[in-house]
Amino acid sequence: MLSNSILQINELTKTYGSRESIKIAVDNVSLHVKRGCFFGLLGPNGAGKSTIINSIAGITQPTSGQILVDGIDVVKDYKLARTKVGLSPQEFNVDIFSTPEQLMDYMAGYYGVKSETRKEMVNSLIGRFDLEAHRKIKFQKLSGGLKRRAMLGRALVHTPDLLILDEPTAGVDVEQRHDLWAYLKELNEGGKTIILTSHYLEEIEHLCTDIAVINHGRIVAEGTKEEFMKNGKSIEERYLEITREDNSSKK
Amino acid sequence: MRTNWIGLYTMFRREVGRTMRVVIQTLVAPVVSAALYIFIFGTVIGGRIDDFAGVPYISFVFPGVLMLSIINASFASASSALYFMRFTRGIEEILIAPFSYIEMLVGFVGSAVVRALMVAGLILLTGVLFGAVSLVNPLGFVFYVSAISAIFALLGIIVALWAESFERLQVFNVFVITPLTYLGGIFYSITFLPDVAATITRFNPFFYFADGIRSSMIGYSEADTTIGIFIIVGLLVLLAVLVTQLFKRGWKIRS
Q1: Residues of A in contact with B247 (CB under 8 A)
Q2: Which residues between 170 and 199 in chain A have a beta carbon less than 8 angstroms from any beta carbon of chain B?
Q3: B14, B91, B221, B228: which could join B85 in a potential S-S bond, CB 3.0 to 4.6 Å?
Q4: Is residue A66 within 8 Å of residue A30, measured between CB atoms?
């Protein structure tokens, strides 16, 4: 584990299915995320982004390899490792009859946050994500944008060291997206490490300091944002170049 | 890492909240059913039957009625809560939280037992109103009620993991729990049965569940108490080990 790493992935492989019809979702991926950085994980649909994220968070069981969060093995010492991670997943994995307030309160409780701190944290996040008028409305009745904000609140409620956001602004309107960007930047500047996946490449360009591109389950490019944008190219142009090149090399 | 007590308490708190959210289904319905059983067996039929085992017929039957309600509440709570969490992917909230596999087990089983005990408390109150309740061994009663609730919570978890549809959730209840409960001597003494049927009944674990609760309430037992305790504790340990292993493997909950 490198001393400045918050996340170290070593030769992670995840396969699905039986021997006859095996599908490799993640193929021998190694990745290093520096503490305090804003890390963008890019790739087309089905490239393996969510599988990597779910393996870090404990939703997916790796087939082989090792994942260390803050030096802690997420399989061997899973309980401690999970206290370090906050996840806002792409899909809404919630009890749809719960309210945003309950979702945050229950999640903080699951993480062992004491009652007083929990109430303060929930109130603060509800205020920060402008959910006051919706705090007691059932999740299923919220708009897409409000749902996303509730999910973000839930991911942050136990103050994780590593925040993982899988498509956090999908369905969020432009104004709210910019507000959210400002908040995420503020969080990152305060020292929180954030891993972000998004199909909005301007979001990655605006927020991230480090970027990796995954295609067909393998990391095909990795570096700082500046390295990606050298020669005056945008992230989008570089991303298309990298993925097209990789796709054509596989044909 | 230390035991996640606040996390466990949150799981219980959430289940109580879920129970209260659908209070008619979770608390009112079992109490109404139990009240009808007590009324029919106590007043309508019981009035025409002599005392049995030194107690009125309703006092003989009441432990069985209580057991039926506890079993249903515990099984339904565990199976529906977990299946619904799988269905909505809400289970991922538990998977990403710092719970050990044993804590997950305690959380799910404890939540179901809490609901079963809420139902049991209300039915006991109803029984008191009908004069059907006596309690000769309170500690034994607490043991039997808690252990039996836990067994059915564990079975509920296994069924919730196995089921791929809401219909399948009912299969175990309809084809296993209901027949074995009604054939386990909850409404009758096995001395009423022909020898062969009585012998077969002794191979039905539900007979020992009902007999245990009955012996703690009215002091009358038709089974060997040691065998009964052995079966209950054995099932509890076996199912707890099985469920912990299923959680550890992430069967049907972790990809």
Answers
A1: none
A2: none
A3: B91
A4: no
- Pairwise CA distance, residues A131 & A135, whole Å: 6
Render the burial of B119-131: b for 16+ CB within 10 Å, e for the rest.
bbebbbebbeebe
Q: A50 and chain B: CB distance < 8 Å anywhere?
A: no
pLDDT digits over B117-130, tens only? 999 999 999 999 88
Q: Is residue A190 part of a domain?
A: no
Q: Is residue B98 part of a domain?
A: yes
Radius of gyration, CA atoms only, chain A: 18
Number of domains in chain A: 1
A95, A102, A106: residue with CB nearest B88: A95
Global pTM value = 0.89
Phi-psi region of A67 (alpha: psi -120 to 50; beta: other; left: phi over 0): beta
A109 closest CB neighbour out of B6, B88, B96 = B6
Name the residue type at position A48: G
Question: Within a 10 A sphere around the Cβ of B4, how many other Cβ atoms?
Answer: 24
Contact A79/B at CB under 8 A: yes
- The whole domain housing B173 covers 5-249
- Classify residue B255: in a domain, yes or no: no
Residues 89-128 of B with CB under 8 A from A: 89-100
List the domain range (segments joined by +) for residue A153. Answer: 92-159
